[in-house]
Amino acid sequence: MALDVLYFAWVRERIGLPKERIETGAGDVRGLIEQLVAREERYAAAFADLSAIRVAVDQELSELDSPIAGAREVAFFPPMTGG
Predict the structure, then answer these.
(1) pLDDT tens by residue, 27-42
(2) If 0-12 CB within 10 Å is exposed, 13-18 middle and 19+ buried, where does residue 11 land?
């Protein structure tokens, strides 16, 4: 399946792209991350500390074990702060 993967803030800076279209067979967010990390070092650097990453699947805040089957979009970003 193909889906759009979006990167925000320092995640985008480390990867060097705001978004890309990915072909994946991953069943959940963690599987997608593993696929990305295996591609290149810049992805490994961006996802080195998963506790510092938040994810949204089709614009809904999600967890790393959230399924992505049928999703159109997955976004990665650092934790948000209010104020």
Answers:
(1) 999 999 999 999 999 9
(2) buried
